[in-house]
Write a structure and sequence with these properties.
Quinone Oxidoreductase, Chain A, domain 1, 2 domains, seven-stranded mixed sheet, six-stranded parallel sheet, 15 strands
Length: 325
Amino acid sequence: MSKAIRIHANGGPEVLNYEDVKPGHPGLGQILVRHTAIGLNFIDVYYRSGLYPPPGGFPLIPGSEAAGIVLEVGQGVDWLKPGDRIAYAMTIGAYAEQRLVDASHVVKVPDGISDEQAAAMMLKGMTAEYLLRRTFKVKAGDTILYHAAAGGVGLILGQWAKHLGATVIGTASSTDKIELAKAHGFDHVINYKEQDFVAGVAAITGGKKCDVVYDSVGNDTFPASLDCLKPLGMFVSFGQSSGPIPPFSMLLLAQKGSLFATRPTLFVYNAKREALDASAAALFDVVLSGAVKIKINQRYALRDAGKAHSDLEGRRTTGTTILIP
């Protein structure tokens, strides 16, 4: 018997129940994993609250990112063995001590990266990878704006973008978060509670504005984010922590400077195995090089997942957070 967090109906953090589950034995193409660390992400809140429908219905075990040890391998899995260290993102069901997972979704964790680091960075780090290297290919000399700079993706992306030679502008809500972001690659951080970020970007760039805006906030930062872009700039909406962006006319993009807009997801970008391997390899390489450092700012016991969700939604967390089974 194993323990897991299960949801039987959508709601607040109180619907996260710590229960006994039977993980079973791996079938064709599967592995049984004992988790050593589990990542906490805003997408977990979306599934819990009902913003995203639960895959397969209820009861639902949330969580899309974890690291652990292979316990058993199923038929057809010849590149993994018991004892191997693995990590994954994008496959729901991580809030558990043990679970079955398709081997096609996992990658081996290299020496030099701890299980806690791997669990804290797979979803967030591969998100930063596709945003910076594929959605908009950031290069030296580019100027970027990233909202929620002190969040999990932000602290990774800020360091990585600086490593690529960009000027990195962020937004944050407090002095502590501003200092944290500046310690993780951000050249300038605007306190959006005290200053209009559009005016702040204009002042920082001398009116030239940004090549790209990365926005996981959603409703609260739209359409003002468009006013931070140069003509032909790109607006990248990859989350909605403050609620979804309301419908808007495509004509708005023309009026703001023939802008590009996209709503990418990691699930699509890394849907093919070769894309997953390349994304994970790029992430591991930049972390092992020291250019990007993974710091874990909060740890909660798995049984306290409700408290972790409450703190995440209440903006009482910074950077990466993990759950410990």
